Amino acid sequence: MQDKITKLFKAIADPTRRDIFHALVIATSALSITQISNQFEISRQGVTKHIKTLQEAGLVVIDAQGRERFCNANTKPLQEINKWLQFYSQFWDNSLQNLGNYLNSKT
Amino acid sequence: MQDKITKLFKAIADPTRRDIFHALVIATSALSITQISNQFEISRQGVTKHIKTLQEAGLVVIDAQGRERFCNANTKPLQEINKWLQFYSQFWDNSLQNLGNYLNSKT
DNA sequence: TAAATACGCAACTTTTTGGTTGCTTAACTA
DNA sequence: TAGTTAAGCAACCAAAAAGTTGCGTATTTA
């Protein structure tokens, strides 16, 4: 397909995918494909496709158990976006914000 | 089209568009459509379309002068992405990074 | 004023994307 | 073991996106 950062940006560019990702982040336990699709209007196959896209972006990790596939959110790849933003953040102002960005860049 | 944040994410999800935006950010002066298209493989019309998308996301501001349309980058909308990331950043670790994020959230 | 330049608009093509349905297979459960 | 449940795969469809070409129109410049 395309490079990592593009996969990542495309994964979160779709509102439904952002919603699914968010649901997984705030879920107290991993959710199966069926459990996810119960929460959304679209079909189970539609969810499967979105999960695949999220998985390829590294934002979802799957834990297969028997016939079920439990999906976990992984927020770490979002750090790449944070890094991407860092460069541009120097242009939007130079107050405390930049201290925050500076600290981020050092961790 | 769609909501603001989706427009923004979609605008930067395309690699060509990210490149155009980057070129405008680092440019020492505003660039006309033709000047931009000279730097890229795609046609002038292709550039015009990308600029329109960036403009609708607020990432480009146009200053028309005579027959030319000078494009300026505007990084401010990217703060919205930063804000979006903030919520998820609490999950990826809790060291200095969070101090940075915390400071960002207060400005 | 004639030629050249900068650009918009519209139509069109191709590819990608978001979504569907139908069918199969594997794994539980009664 | 028979029925049900979870999900993958493949084919398909419609709409959106990325890009093109052709043409018209304003604005410069020679």
Automatic annotation (TrEMBL), chains A, B:
<dbReference type="Pfam" id="PF12840">
    <property type="entry name" value="HTH_20"/>
</dbReference>
<dbReference type="InterPro" id="IPR001845">
    <property type="entry name" value="HTH_ArsR_DNA-bd_dom"/>
</dbReference>
<dbReference type="InterPro" id="IPR036390">
    <property type="entry name" value="WH_DNA-bd_sf"/>
</dbReference>
<protein>
    <submittedName>
        <fullName>Metalloregulator ArsR/SmtB family transcription factor</fullName>
    </submittedName>
</protein>
<dbReference type="InterPro" id="IPR036388">
    <property type="entry name" value="WH-like_DNA-bd_sf"/>
</dbReference>
<feature type="domain" description="HTH arsR-type">
    <location>
        <begin position="1"/>
        <end position="93"/>
    </location>
</feature>
<dbReference type="InterPro" id="IPR011991">
    <property type="entry name" value="ArsR-like_HTH"/>
</dbReference>
